[in-house]
Design goal:
Blueprint lengths: L3 E2 L7 H7 L2 E2 L2 H7 L2 E4 L13 H4 L7 E4 L8 H9 L5 E4 L19 E3 L8 H18 L11
Parallel strand pairs: 1-2, 3-4, 4-5, 5-6
Length: 151
């Protein structure tokens, strides 16, 4: 499987080498991918990053996945693209307006998967958060965190 990525900041070359990800332009990611997963923070440069223009670049069978922040995707544009059959579908656990309005057209579409935004709600995720907090505290105090301390 080929994995394409895009970021506005340079990604560590070690990470790229270890994962085999191919960094390219947003336009190439959108036009060459079967699945497009949005994984960025919401800020002035990412608001409506995925919009009518960028959605039209996607393959007809492509699936858009947004588990980042709702307003990164222009929801009205997404609805229009989905209604036109211009992309294969969408999987969303975040929405431009939350909670998703009762009358949202997304709720009526067979090619849309809607889910709650709770990927961090597992015991394993909680444990990672707690250990990262402890490590950050220890390192913030100028001490070395010993990985063998993890249980």
């Amino acid at each position: 499987m080929r994995v394409l990525g895009n970021d506005i900041v340079e990604i560590d070359h070690v990470f790229i080498a270890e994962t085999g990800i191919q960094m390219t332009t947003l336009e190439t990611v959108l036009s060459a991918s079967d699945f497009v997963s949005v994984n960025c923070d919401l800020n002035p440069t990412s608001h409506h990053l995925i919009n009518a223009r960028t959605l039209r670049l996607m393959r007809k069978e492509a699936i858009l996945i947004n588990c980042a922040r709702g307003p990164i995707v222009d929801e009205a544009a997404l609805v229009g693209i989905l209604e036109a059959g211009a992309i294969g579908g969408a999987a969303l656990d975040v929405f431009e307006v939350e909670p998703l309005p009762v009358n949202s057209p997304l709720k009526q579409m067979n090619n849309v998967l809607l889910a709650p935004h709770n990927s961090n709600s597992s015991p394993a995720a909680w444990e990672r958060v707690h250990w990262n907090t402890i490590r950050n505290l220890i390192e913030g105090l100028g001490m070395n965190f010993d990985e063998s301390m993890r249980v």
